[in-house]
Amino acid sequence: MVAFSFSVLSRLRTRTQSIYIRFKHSATGRSPLNSVSKFESQRSGGGGSSVFSVAALSASSLAFLLQSNLSLCDGLPDDSGRSIRVGGKGSSSYVVKGSHKDLPREFVDELRSICQDNLSLDYEEREFHGKPQNSFHRALNIPDVVVYPRSEMEVSDIVKSCNKHKIPIVPYGGSTSIEGHTLAPNGGVCIDMSSLKKVKSLHVKDMDVVVEPGIGWMELNDYLEPYGLFFPLDPGPGASIGGMCATRCSGSLAVRYGTMRDNVINLKVVLANGDVVKTGSRARKSAAGYDLTRLMIGSEGTLGVITEITLKLQKIPQYSVVAMCNFPTVKDAADVAIATMMSGIQVSRVELLDEVQVRAVNIANGKNFPELPTLMFEFIGTEAYSREQTHIVQKIAAEHNGTDFVFAEDAAAKRELWKVRKEALWACFAMEPTFEAMITDVCVPLSQLAELIAVSKKELDASRLVCTVIAHAGDGNFHTVILFDPNQEDQRLEAEKLNNFMVQTALKMEGTCTGEHGVGTGKVKYLEQELGIENLRTMKKIKAALDPNNIMNPDLYGGTRSGNGPRLWPWPILMWSCTYVFGQHLELAW
Ligand SMILES: Cc1cc2nc3c(=O)[nH]c(=O)nc-3n(C[C@H](O)[C@H](O)[C@H](O)COP(=O)(O)OP(=O)(O)OC[C@H]3O[C@@H](n4cnc5c(N)ncnc54)[C@H](O)[C@@H]3O)c2cc1C
Prior knowledge:
This protein is an alpha+beta fold. Among the domains are: 105-192, Uridine Diphospho-n-acetylenolpyruvylglucosamine Reductase, domain 2 (2-Layer Sandwich), CATH 3.30.43; 199-315, 2-Layer Sandwich (Uridine Diphospho-n-acetylenolpyruvylglucosamine Reductase, domain 3), CATH 3.30.465; 319-522, Vanillyl-alcohol Oxidase, Chain A, domain 3 (3-Layer(aba) Sandwich), CATH 3.40.462. The strands form six sheets. Strands 1, 17, 18, 19, 20, 21, 22, 23 and 24 form a nine-stranded mixed sheet that branches. It has a five-stranded antiparallel sheet with strand order 10-11-15-13-14. Helix 4 packs antiparallel against helix 6 (152-165), helix 12 (330-342) packs antiparallel against helix 17 (449-462) and helix 17 runs antiparallel to helix 18 (489-508). The radius of gyration is 23 Å and the shape is globular. Residues 1-93 and 560-590 have low confidence and may be disordered. The chain binds flavin-adenine dinucleotide (FAD). The site of flavin-adenine dinucleotide (FAD) has 38 residues, from strand 8, helix 8, strand 15 and helix 16.
């Protein structure tokens, strides 16, 4: 075995948008971050200027002053030929449509009395919130208003007011989700939770922590480190704990510690009528009542706004070893991941990258990793146990054509390696900086993973698009990043076709269309096929009971807002039928 080391990158910034946009726009020289920093300084009070200062008023804010009914939602042209502003990039075929009602003046007055200065009508700020930072999905409209509540009570008052006036709500966390989750196709109110980021209480002896939803997992781990504790879920850098609950996310450590579903003890949630519900006690187990915690986790803001979370924590491992190994094919690599899990070793991470993804990592980070299918492992425990696991897996790898088995024990080197892995998605844009990425997220029973990756890889390699493979291989969860030129419709359709191929293959293997990224606006079309009509009907009943006016993220999970009442599932079903009949290419809009 050969020990290796990595130089520490200092380029990583904490805000996910910064990193993503840097990769995406480095080739064009555009600098879209100016407006982001402006919002941040406004919220923190750093600039000292109110969002309502006259100098800061945008054209749409002025419109607000002049009209009694507000129409601030100018995104893309709609049927009435209203003003044309930004939106998708030329093609409208992946734009989510929506129905937009002008905001009643009374409602905006109410909202302003609740939020005071923490409310923005600024066009750029609304546009920024209406455009996902990490996905290609676009919507016809953008939010009419962005609010930044400072307390649970404020959230409740905002939601109550929205419910009274039947105004759509989109909760907003770190905006790292990748299925168009934070779009506001019907306009309405974007509730940005970033001002609610306190650690409310830490119980070291119980190994749990109570936090507000806007805190990021990385910030939380910085806070916990001196106590020898950490929170083991690691989705996109910049993701918030509230958004992570809402998407039921996981990450590279889920193979050891489970997903968000397994790591939340209880929640507080503001329901559509403004009621604040606590879903359980702080006890680790409870058999009392329906499991409302698990109902809310993964509900993607469609059932309520999460305002407080109690999380299970883990001890920072005494010792760890990170290892890497190359293989001639991705199937060999996947076979080793499966054999490792079958050996009974409790790896804490096992990640697979194909040769294209390694090339992207090399280009983006100035690295020189062998451009071959690669497995990355982390072993934890005592020093002796970590090394023993490393040796066992080295043997397994050798039996499956593994070469160049290397490992790291130095703390900085290990941190650097996982950082590079975590940013692998953004690294892809180093290959095609002006392209968009379609990211697949299928997950299958572990025994099926090698076959799924092998058949998918054949399709991906045959495509003219650049496609990379990244897998949380110990969980049977694998992603492809498919890069396409958003100005070339045929390329987007080709990406859709590949995505659909993998979803259909995974479903045949009793898998899922989304292992961890969630449904958003992008995966709705697969739900009926995966879950069955009875399942969807049950979800519809839950949604109608908790949100009778269909105001909570009305477009996610297939809701729609034409008229005031809830209209759910028929649309995704129709969409899926169209997919089936018309050769599997269709608009994501409905
Ligand atoms: C580079 C990169 C790597 C990634 N890696 C992973 C990975 O390994 N594993 C993984 O699972 N995901 C991964 N993701 C996806 C993403 O980080 C997760 O989906 C994350 O959980 C989203 O959190 P967020 O705070 O950014 O949520 P947002 O994007 O802000 O919102 C997501 C959804 O949650 C809702 N929401 C947000 N806050 C609340 C709230 N307080 N109450 C109710 N609803 C709310 C929103 O309305 C929206 O529907 C990655 C993303 C990127 C960009």
